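Please, structure for the following, as tokens.
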Amino acid sequence: MTKHNPYNFLPLQPTGRNETNTANTYAPEDMIKIYEQQFLIQVPEEELTEFLPALKAFYDIDNHTLDVSAIIFDAIADSAIIYNHKIKVGDYQILGELIEEAIEYDDDNKGDESAENEEIQAYTLECQRTFFINDVEIPYHFNLFIYGDGYSTLTKKETVLEKMYWFVRGRFEEDLLDGAEDNDSLESVNAQLVSLGIREMDLTTVDEIISYVEGSIIDDPMVDELNKLLDDAE
């Protein structure tokens, strides 16, 4: 007999029953899929109260199972759920070579022999990090500026994820950024997302996703490669 499946839940095979025989048990990777569907399946507003009972009935699980699925997701999933969107960090690419930059001292340091004689090397490097939003691949290009022990990034404005970054930054730093009025609007960003098959986002979701992206563009493997490039350059 085919189960009633009005929300197109993924068919998953249970591994058995729990100790009290009140709910099915599932493999950890399937528990992650159950957890994700709570947030990623689009449900009409008038059906929101019916959705969770339908999910529990389809998989024959209880609230405890859902709690455990959240714990498993946090422990082993390679992605994050931000409101109704899943985001995953992909690979990085270094797209060019280190370019040595000349340091220009500001007026406060001009004439300061200790500052001018101190040998501080600076480089720029073109990079890319791939992200996946709801399993749609989106590249994120940025220029990396390395100065002494620190670094900063300058994001391009080509892909929708890059435009989301400038949209967020423009809202918070409108008085400081030249050309902030040229940034895409939320409506424009959402139109581009929908064209890729990604559901629309509200302001809070866009802010949280860009915060996640900014915290993820440089990871330990990338730092290791950058250090090797810097050692070779010196």
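The mean pLDDT is 90. Residues 144 and 153 are 5 Å apart (CA to CA).
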